[in-house]
Amino acid sequence: MGNPSQEPAIVVVMGVSGSGKSSTGILLAERLGVPFLEADDLHPAANRAKMAAGHPLSEEDRGPWLAAVSQWIEQATASRTGGVVACSALRYRYRQMFRRAGARVWLLHLALDEAAARRRVAGRTGHFMPAALVESQYAELEPLRPDEPGLTVDAENSRQAIVDRAAAALHSLE
Questions:
Q1: Considering the domain boundaries, does residue 20 fall inside one?
Q2: What is the pairing mode between strands 105-111 and 83-86?
Q3: Which are the contacts of 96, defined by CB distance < 8 A and separation ≥ 6?
């Protein structure tokens, strides 16, 4: 398979709901010329319904979803396409699962103050995640640890500024 440092990166754009994962991920994937995955699209209908009803997911609920995201990372790694996935990835152990699935998983944490996240989520239309669940996401959030490859940025920055910073950080890894 060659040197892992020469493999295309898989970027996990992570953070709480409302931090801008999807919009940032789409722009970053376009900049890098790689496929984009919205991890929320892999949630089974039961998970979406549970969250829409204002109930946080259990570990049991998340298991198949995390496995599906890991499988996408494995496929993107095996095909050598690289990719960007927008995924909350709130816990360290979830991110470790993703890192085991791909040789060059890199994390972009969009950090956002809880009040700002609540405002953003409350202002969205057409999304299953209610503002009532924002607090539960902060209770689950484990910021990036020193052993995790990646970057934490302020989600209040412009999408373009965040993408520019992430692309520069990724380029420095090559």
A1: no
A2: unpaired
A3: none
Q: Which residues touch 24 (CB under 8 Å, ≥6 apart)?
A: 13, 86, 108, 110, 159, 162, 163, 166
Residue 10 inside a domain? The answer is no
For residue 145, the 8-state DSSP code is P
pLDDT at 3: 44
pLDDT of residue 87: 95
Name the residue range of residue 125's domain.
30-173
Note the Cα 51 to chain centre separation in Å: 18
On whether residue 24 sits in a domain, the answer given is no
Instruction: Pick out the chain residues at pLDDT < 70.
Output: 1-7, 122-133, 174
How many domains in the chain? 1
pLDDT of residue 98: 97
**Domain harbouring 161, CATH code:** 3.40.50.300
